[in-house]
Design brief:
By secondary structure, this protein is an alpha+beta fold. The protein is built from 7 helices and 11 strands.
């Protein structure tokens, strides 16, 4: 090979290597409108901080502190996530207050019910498109871009925690995109969690002085929620299903 041809060959190889480096670095490419794929750059550094399996977000609700007639958690959820706050059959309600009674003992409790963010979520198992998904940190979400509104997940959820958007939506929170014809549910206010903030319901409960809701990392033994779970008896709703819920209750 002549000296000139060698130079051309080396230049082509260098250009190809540079192209591959650039391609590896551009990890946040849009695969579809509104859907991003986050990969690892050529330097081994994530271009955006992804959810980590080292964390599992969870919530502990003390029903003995949940005040009768108080709906601060539901109101805060609606305000934060752009919900109507109505409770009709065609309205989305990501957290609802339930009044339960033990027929044997007569004990009564107020129980906030929301998506339980299961470790083994039935909604994810039955979704035909992958729209129902669980992040590495345990938060269960719905990708509205690929949700086809089949509502299989609503039927599979034992907690009746999902809603279907029937009507056109206006005045949305830009951080919480929603869509007509899609299923949705509590996200643990993922937009706040990713900013190291507390979910709106927990914040509202604390501001009202009830302190009935606690949120944190279940995998961190030094977190307040992990210590509370070690110190007090807690319950999973429908523990018999073996879903290992991220939401636990105290006092029931």
């Amino acid at each position: 090979m002549s000296e000139q041809n060698k130079q051309v060959h080396e230049t082509a190889n260098n250009d190809r290597r540079d192209f591959l480096k650039v391609g590896a670095g551009v990890a946040g490419l849009a695969l579809a409108p509104g859907v991003l794929f986050y990969g690892i750059s050529a330097e081994g550094k994530a271009p955006d901080a992804p959810a980590s399996a080292k964390v599992r977000w969870g919530m502990l609700i003390d029903t003995s502190k949940c005040a009768d007639g108080c709906d601060s958690c539901a109101t805060a959820c609606a305000t934060e996530n752009g919900l109507s706050g109505q409770t009709g059959p065609q309205d989305s309600q990501w957290i609802r207050k339930m009044h339960i009674k033990n027929l044997q003992t007569g004990a009564e409790h107020n129980l906030p019910m929301l998506c339980q963010h299961c470790e083994n979520p039935p909604c994810v198992d039955v979704c035909p498109t992958g729209a129902s998904m669980k992040r590495a940190d345990g938060i269960v979400l719905v990708d509205r871009h690929i949700c086809i509104g089949c509502r299989y997940c609503m039927m599979a959820c034992p907690y009746k925690a999902r809603s279907f958007v029937h009507e056109p939506l206006t005045d949305q929170n830009p951080e919480v995109p929603r869509g007509q014809g899609c299923v949705e549910s509590c996200t643990f206010c993922v937009q706040r969690v990713d900013r190291d903030e507390t979910p709106a319901c927990v914040e509202a409960c604390s501001k009202d002085g009830h302190m009935a809701m606690m949120f944190g990392d279940l995998r961190d033994p030094n977190s307040d929620i992990a210590r509370a779970l070690q110190s007090y008896a807690t319950t999973e709703v429908r523990a018999d299903l073996g879903l290992n819920t991220g939401v636990r209750y105290q006092g029931i």
